[in-house]
Amino acid sequence: MKFIYLLCFLAFSCFDLLSQARFSNPGKLSLDPRTSPDIAMIINCLTHALVLVNNSANDSVFLANGITVNSKFGNIWSIQIASEQVEILGLLPCIQYAEIASKANAARFKNDIERQSTSVDKVQSGIQNGLPLNYSGKGIVVGIVDIGFQCNNPTFYTNDGSRTRIKRYWMQNTNFGTPPLGFAYGMEIKDTTFVQLANDMDGSHGTHVAGIAAGSGFSTPGLQYRGMAPEADLVFVSLKYKNDTLGGSSLGDYIVANPTILDAYKYIFDYAQSVGKPAVINLSWGMHTGPHDGSSLFDQATETLVGKGKILVGANGNEGDNPMHWEHKFSKDTTGTIMIENGRQWRQRESVYADFWGSANSNFSIQVQIIDTNKNIIVQTPFISSKSNTVHAFNLNADSSSFKIVLACEQLNPNNNKPNITVMADHMNQMKYAIIARITSDSSMVHGWNSGASREWTSGSFRNKLNQINFENEFIDGNSDYTAGENGGTSKAVISVGAFAARTAYNNIKGKWINDSSYVTPGNITRFSSKGPTVDGRTKPDISAPGYDVPSSINNKQVDGWMPDKTLLKTFFRNDSQYWTAFNGTSMASPHVTGIVALMLQANPNLTADQVREILKSTATVDQNTGVVPNNQYGYGKVNAFAAVQKALLYAGINAYQIEKGINIFPNPAQEMLSFELPLLHEGASLSIMGMDGKTVKVMTGELISFDTYHLDIASLARGIYFIKFNNGGQLFVYKLLKN
Predict the structure, then answer these.
(1) C-alpha of 474 from chain center
(2) pTM of the shown model
C-alpha cells in the first residue's frame, strides 16, 4: 500500500507541474495525496468529471484515451474515466478545464394547509373555480433527482392504488444492472413491476420531496396528503454520491454531484421527449463551493438544458440563519476572520473547508493561523497568493499537537476570470485552538463561504469573536447574505425557491400537540431560508413556497428516532405501515413549485422555462409579510398556483375567465356537428376552435353575418376538451367545449 501511495505521489508531482492549472481547486484537492490520505484507494475506481472542451473535441479522441462521455451540454461534457488515468484530462489539448468528481453532497433536510396557502386547492378543483379543468399534472413528467426513494410508497400510485405512476427509475448509486442507453453507470429500471421492488434505502429525503411535488396521497383519508400534481408521471433518479475515497463532506459536495445531477437532468428530459410530454425536474440539493455568480460549469450547462416544456426547479438553501458568508472590498489593506465549524463544542476535532473568490482580474492572498485562547499564534502559513495557481499543504507540529492546513489556489478561473483560494484546515483540540484566516489584497472584492468540515457533513461560519477570543475591532464577522446555494440557487436557468411557513402546529400520531410558532409564525419566511443576491447581482430566490412543518410521505424502512414526534399520520398499504411526517427546509419548498409548474404545463404545454419563471414572478402573492418585492428573502413573493395557471392559459391564447354571453353554442358536449347562433357582429369578427395546447384546430371560414346560425363539422377532432374563441371586433369571448 505504501508503494502504491508513493507511485501516486510521484505521478501527481509530475502531473502538478504539467497541467494543474486546468483543474478546479476541489479537483486539485481531491487528487493531491497530501490532502487525501487514502489516495491509493482510487486505483481501479471510476471518476466523474465536467470538462470544458474546445472545437477539436470528439468522441473518438475521448474513447481512445479511455474516457466515456455521458452527456453533452454545449461545450461542457459530463465524462467518466478510470481514476488512475485522471492526469490525461490535463494533457489532452481539446480539454480547457476540468472539474473532477468523487462524491456528491448529501441531502440536508433542510398537505392540506400547504395546498390552500399556495391556492393549489383551487387549481385541483379548477372547474368549480372557473378554470377549464380540474388540474392534476396529468400528462406531465415530474422528475425528482434525490436519494432515499421508497418506490412502493402508496403516494406514488394512482389515487385508487391500482398502479404505480413511476415510469422510469435510474439508480445511479449501484454497480448492478444495466445503465440507461448512452450512459455508463448505474441501473435503469423500466418495468413497473420491478420499479415497485427497487427501493433506495438511503434515508427518506427523496420520498418526502416527491410526495410533495406529485404524491397522490393514496391511503390517506380523502387523499389529504396528496401533492401538488397528484396525477403526473414520475421519473426518479437516485444520485451517485460516493466511492471508495471520500465520504459525505464539504469537499465531496463539489467534486461528484455536478456531473451526475446533469446526467440525471438529461435522462429525464430525454425520456419526456421520447413520450411527447413536457417535464419539470426538482433538485432539493445544494452546496457552497463555487463562485455563486452563475458562471460555474454546472450552472452554464443547465442553461443548455431548459426550453419549451423543459423546466428546472431547485431549493435555494438552508443557510439563512448561519453567518457562513464573508465579504470585504480591499484597498491595499489586510483583515481577517475566525473560521469555525458549527457545533464545535460537541466535537474533539475541528475542521473547516472554506472557498474564497475575488473579483475578476484581481489577486488576493490568504494566511492561515492556528491560535490559542490567549490569541497566541501556535502555527501559521505564509501568505499564499492566488497567483501561485497550485496546492500548498502544511503538516505542522507545535504545542504537542499536530495541525494540517491546505490551500488550493487558482489564478484566474476560466469561466469568470476570478481568482479562487480554497482552504482546508483542522486540529484536534477545539477547546484550546481556533482557526484564523488573514486576507490581503491591493484591490479585490473577496467573497467567502465556510461549509464546515472538509470530510464530514457539518456546517461552518465566520466570526470576529469566539468565547474569550475577541477580534471585533480588527476582523470582519460573517453574514447570511449571498447564501443561495450552488446547484439549486445560483443558476440563471433554475427557478430557485425559498421557504416560508404555512403551518407551525399540528397533532402528531401520539396525540401530542406540536407547536413551533416560537421559531416562526405562519406566513413568514423561515430563518433558515437562504438569502440572495447572487454575486453577479440577481435576486434570489425567485419565489417562495411552504417549507416548514410540511407533511409528506417518508421511506417506511428509514424511520429515524426523531421522526415519530413529527409524524402526523400512519396508514397501511399492502400490509405494510406507511408514515406521513413533517420536515423543514427549502428542500420541501422547492417541490411545491415543481408540482405547480406541472399544473401550469398541463394548462399550457408550450410554456418555455423563461415564461414559467416570469409567470411565477408576476403572479406571486405579495402581502404584509413579504413587504416590497422583489427582495432577497421571498424573491418576488409567495407562489400562487391559481393565478399562475390562469396566466399560463392566457399565454396559450385562452382567456377562460371572460365568459360573458356572446354567442349561443349547441350542443355542448358535441359529437360531430357544432352550431352557433351569432349576435350583432362588429368589423373583423372571427370564430375558431383551439386545443388545450393553444393551437387552432378549426376556423369558421368566410364572412360572418349578424344573427345568423352556422354549423361546423368537428367529427375529425379527437375526444377531449377544446376552447371556442370568438373575437367580436376586439372583444374576446372564450367558451369551453367538450368533444365526445
Answers:
(1) 37
(2) 0.82
